[in-house]
Amino acid sequence: MRTHKVFIVLTFIAAWEVVAVLVNSRFLPSPLLVGATFWGLLSSGALLQHAAVSLARVMAGFLLAIAVGLPLGVLMGWSPKMENFSVIIEMLRPIPPLAWIPLAMLWFGIGFQSKAFIIFIGALFPILSNALLGVRETEPYLVEAGKVLGASDSQILQTIILPNSFPSILEGLRIGLGIAWMCLVAAELTGLKTPLGLGYLIMEARDLGRADTVMAGMIAIGVIGYVMNIALKWMENRLVRWKP
Amino acid sequence: MKKISCLLLVILMMGCLSQQERGIQSIDDLNGKTIAIPGKATVQDFLLQRFLKDNNITATTVIVKPPEMIQTLESGGIDAFIAWEPYPGRAVVEGGHSLLVTSQDIWPHHPCCVVAVREEFLAEDRDVVLAVLACHMRATTFILENPQEAVRIGVDFTGMSEEVISQAMQTIEYVYEPNYSGIKEYLDQLLDMEYVNPSDVGEVDTFLSKFINSQLIEEAATYSCSNLDKTIRIGYLRADLHQLALFVALDQGYFDEFGLTVELYVFSAGPEEMDAFGSQDIDMGYLGIAPATTKRLNLGIPIVILAGVNNEGSALVVS
To answer: A42: how many CB neighbours lie within 10 A of its CB?
Structure first.
């Protein structure tokens, strides 16, 4: 299985190399050149610096989205009164996070907060919806059984509903993190107070007409996104092993 | 109680005073500050780096789109910005901000925007190129001879007030001759800044003799034709008052006289416009010489510089 994957990646790179040689244009740098640029950025420490700043922005927005989205989602799934608020959520949800960029810049300037805000908006809705869904999909007979046995509301929530909706919540976190990471790069493509971040690296390289650096930045984003996804999947598997 | 209120008042006043002290009043105050540019490898990036180097100042540069610069300055996100007119003019007239230096102070009569053409298009449609250049020359002369009327057209083009445009136009020199020695100076500094590679440039004069074509503008001076019946796709930068000649030519119907239909394409900064040249989405364009040179070399986008558009016309704004 693993050799298969390696083979596929190598074939992809080989095909890219062939196309790059055939096209022979600076618009499509070869994997060798991109690899060299990537290595140059990595060994100079610049890439790690950009990545660290980007990750900090993502984590701030993502954690905020968890802090707001999880309780809100659980509450909306739990209480029929709160569920009526979902109309607002449903109206806000289709707005692409990037459409918030002009407002984010007006409200929070070009610093850390505006980036975190965009990421927060991006990650909030999947986290909230999945928490809501998880709570709502808890089998009613489980809740009924709890009630019959004299459990209080908070006991039902803690011992029945939350564990039951855990897989769905984790799935929401995974999707949320993926979207957060995507939003970050776009948010960094606009104004920035600190000239760092993988999105910024790409934008700068674009202005200078360095397609190899653009691709090196894209690869860094891809690798980090891939690793984060694997980490969350691993966590999911460990935490909800009991769930079929 | 009185004592406490007095103490509070004193603290408040000291706070206000120290706030005022933090403002930028001299060039040296820029040390360690954050300054916004419209993009890497733009004329403004180039001018700022030259200015910082000449004055031995270290500052952080960040990229902010010109329409958002004033608002970002006011919200405290940046300490200063350098932009093309009319943004500095607008900052002065509407925001009460001040110009710390104009680009004239940094480099007197420096070239800025130019008219460029795709090499392939020039080979195929030389007549159209000549006609556009003729319109450009005529429009530039019009601006110099009818400044009042030019302000009106500038107001229409940028959507800014007459006061802003009048103030902004004072710092712009409208020209049409391509400035060979000025462009050479740009290239030398771009090499110094390591924005372009010496191996791509080769021998500087050989490169420039291909990159700049000064003959066509002379030919265009006497060019006449009334029924070209062609469409030309021209790129320009959003609300860049340097490029007023393009809008004067449209307003005065110069293109119509040659039987030309103009399709306009707007960009936020020169590097973006160069990408459109690369993808062959535009045939000719008004843009800064710095991004034109940088991307001509780094991406090998085949364009030729045919005319100047303006000298000077940028400024460093502080609040």
So the answer is: 14
Per-residue pLDDT of chain A (244 residues; tens, 9 = 90+): 678 889 999 999 999 999 998 988 888 999 999 999 999 999 999 999 999 999 999 999 999 999 999 999 988 888 878 778 888 888 998 998 889 988 888 788 778 888 899 999 999 999 999 999 998 888 888 888 888 888 888 888 888 888 888 889 999 999 999 999 888 877 887 666 777 899 889 988 988 889 999 999 999 999 998 998 898 888 888 877 665 5
- Alpha-carbon distance of B227 to A86, in angstroms, equals 63
A240: exposed, middle or buried (Cβ count in 10 Å: 0-12, 13-18, 19+): middle
Q: What CATH number was assigned to the domain covering residues A30-239?
A: 1.10.3720.10
Contact between B36 and A27 using a beta-carbon 8 Å cutoff: no
Interchain CB distance below 8 Å, A111 and B77: yes
Please count the residue pairs, one from chain A and one from chain B, whose beta carbons lie less than 8 angstroms apart.
74
- Contact assignment for A110 to B300 by CB distance below 8 Å: no
Identify all chain B residues contacting A25, using CB atoms and an 8 Å cutoff. 300
Q: Are A76 and A124 in contact (CB under 8 A)?
A: no
**Subunit contact B64:A109, Cβ cutoff 8 A:** no
**Residue A5 burial (10 A CB sphere; 0-12, 13-18, 19+):** exposed
Residue window 201-240, chain B: list those with CB within 8 Å of chain A: none
In chain B the domains, ranked by start, together with CATH numbers, are 26-106 (3.40.190.10), 113-312 (3.10.105.10)
Across chain A, how many H-helices and E-strands are there? 12, 0
Residues of A in contact with B295 (CB under 8 A): 208-209
Interchain pair B78, A110: CB under 8 A = yes
Q: ipTM value, please give it.
A: 0.74
Q: Is A26's CB within 8 Å of B300's CB? A: yes
pLDDT in tens, B278-304: 999 999 999 999 999 999 999 999 999
Which residue in A106, A191, A195 is closest to B60 by CB distance?
A: A195
